[in-house]
Write a structure and sequence with these properties.
With 490 residues, this protein is of the alpha+beta class. 32% of the residues lie in helices and 30% in strands. The protein has twelve helices and 23 strands. β4 and β5 form a beta hairpin. α1 packs across α3, α5 runs antiparallel to α6 and α5 crosses α7. The protein is elongated, with a radius of gyration of 27 Å.
Length: 490
């Protein structure tokens, strides 16, 4: 490939020859270790295949605070249905088209291979004047951040972290939420009853990501079903046979289904209740979910094992009282969600109702408070919870020297303002701060589209723009009190 910046794309091509799907990072980790040794740099590789490379400061810049380039070595491994690519042994087949770099029939792995390529290009550059420079390359970010979770940073000297794991050029991420998955089980008893069986469905919702789109006010199909069942029980008399809805804890559920028994209600009466409910929720969600539909189909008289009245009491109490959606907005950036939760999955079997809820917050105490609230709710409904997949938050730093410097240099280079964002999702930065709270971190990167899919593509022009920006940032320095004096001397 004849792309610029030449050395960045050289290293991206080299690591693209190495299979590096999550869980298979030893070879690419060894490549980075070998690179450091060949260039006479200090390097440490751990049992998780994390790699830490350090380069001494240029002469005269030893007093400045160090800079860390950070990214993850692994990639999401997806391919088209007709592809014969084997991610365990095959390298990627890179292609360029319309100003973008992509890969033939597979994910490109620019998330986050471009961070590794930029880091290696900077470390080898002997013409670059720099403070103490380090690269921290982690593993298995895409499958749980295990590398960042287990890395030892005790010997890392840098103060400023340039996390190159964002996909929107010109936007700096300055914080992210921590999170956890809450698994709730309500124990149920069943009894035999006879009535008119029916399948009931709440459908037509838009759904969306439970972090990025939680502030859009979209309806949650599971919670709507809870409201509908309560209304039907009061108006028509029902028993519940089964319930299922949603597919992922981190997605706002678009559909929820259940099977019920009607007791002594007429079809006309049921039609009226369901029509009134549909009209009501369409009015409530007229902008966010105008296509909400309530569908049902009668199956005739049947005898079924249904939830006892007490078990149904507890389920409806839980579904009609559990908090959901945005709970708090960020005080420094009031338009951004700080704390939220989303019940994303519900299903049932003979002995229990299982639910999974995603909790997110950029404030640890608020996340813990929500987990405690869900614990209280479950106990009140005679159930239990399990907390899994917990990861730490990265709180917005109002006095970030790194952020201010980056904004100044970006404007100086491109005459544009760099937007500051806090995302309602997880990044490795939370784990880095957990280990070294004094770090000043910003996440950014070149423009990419459709990451984690076979349509993933990286803007070549944006990569050059980002590399130029990072190089200028390192050359100028971030520690203002010292670097200004250094720049005067140079």
């Amino acid at each position: 490939m004849d792309l610029k910046p030449e050395r960045v794309f050289y290293y991206f091509e080299e690591i693209s020859k190495i299979p590096r799907a999550s869980g298979n990072t030893k070879a690419v980790s060894d490549y980075c270790k070998d690179f450091a040794e060949k260039h006479g740099l200090k390097v440490r590789q751990d049992a998780w295949n994390n790699v830490v490379i350090s380069k001494d400061a240029s002469a005269g810049r030893e007093k400045e605070k160090g800079i860390i380039i950070q990214g993850h070595l692994d990639m999401v491994a997806e391919k088209t249905s007709n592809s014969t690519h084997d991610f365990s042994k095959d390298g990627l087949e890179l292609m360029t088209e319309n100003g973008f770099l992509t890969a033939k029939n597979t994910t490109l792995g620019a998330d986050d291979g471009i961070a590794i390529a930029i880091g290696l290009a900077l470390l080898e550059d002997e013409t670059l004047s720099h403070p103490h420079l380090e690269a921290v390359f982690t593993t298995d970010e895409e499958t749980g951040m295990d590398g960042a979770k287990n890395i030892d940073l005790s010997d890392v000297m840098g103060n400023y972290v340039l996390n190159l794991d964002s996909e929107d050029e010109g936007i700096m991420t300055a914080g992210c939420s921590g999170g956890a998955k809450i698994h709730t089980d309500l124990n149920v008893q069943r009894e035999q009853k006879t009535g008119t069986a029916s399948e009931l469905c709440v459908t037509g919702l838009r759904g969306g990501h439970s972090g990025v789109e939680i502030d859009k006010g979209r309806a949650n199909a599971i919670l709507l079903m809870g409201r509908l069942l309560k209304k039907l029980r009061k108006s028509c008399g029902i028993s519940l046979i089964s319930i299922s809805g949603g597919g992922k804890d981190n997605a706002i559920p678009r559909e929820c289904r259940c099977r019920i028994l009607f007791h002594d209600s007429t079809a006309g009466e049921t039609d009226a209740v369901l029509k009134d409910f549909e009209d009501m929720v369409k009015t409530e969600y007229i902008i966010s979910d105008p296509q909400i539909r309530i569908e049902y189909q009668l199956e005739g008289e049947q005898t079924e094992q249904v939830l006892t009245e007490t078990a149904l009491d507890y389920l409806l109490f839980y579904l009609n009282n559990i908090p959901n959606g945005v709970q708090h907005y960020c005080q420094e950036l009031p338009e951004l969600p700080e704390t939220s939760l989303n019940i994303g999955i519900i299903d049932s079997d003979d002995t229990k109702i299982h639910m999974c809820t995603s909790v997110r917050s950029s404030v640890k105490s608020r996340k813990e408070q929500l987990v405690e609230k869900l614990q209280d709710m479950a106990e009140a409904a005679q159930g239990t919870i399990r907390v899994k997949g917990e990861y730490p938050e990265w709180s917005f730093k109002s006095d970030s020297e790194l952020r201010k410097t980056m904004q100044g240099i970006y404007h100086e280079l491109y005459g544009e303002e760099m937007k500051v964002d806090v995302i309602h999702a997880g990044l490795e930065c939370g784990y880095l701060l957990q280990k070294k709270p004094e770090l000043d971190i910003i996440s950014f990167g070149p423009q990419m589209y459709d990451i984690h899919t076979t349509e993933e593509r990286l803007s070549i022009a944006s990569t050059e723009k980002t590399y130029r920006f990072v190089r200028k940032l390192i050359e100028n320095g971030i520690d203002s009190a010292v670097s200004k004096e250094m720049r005067t001397d140079r």
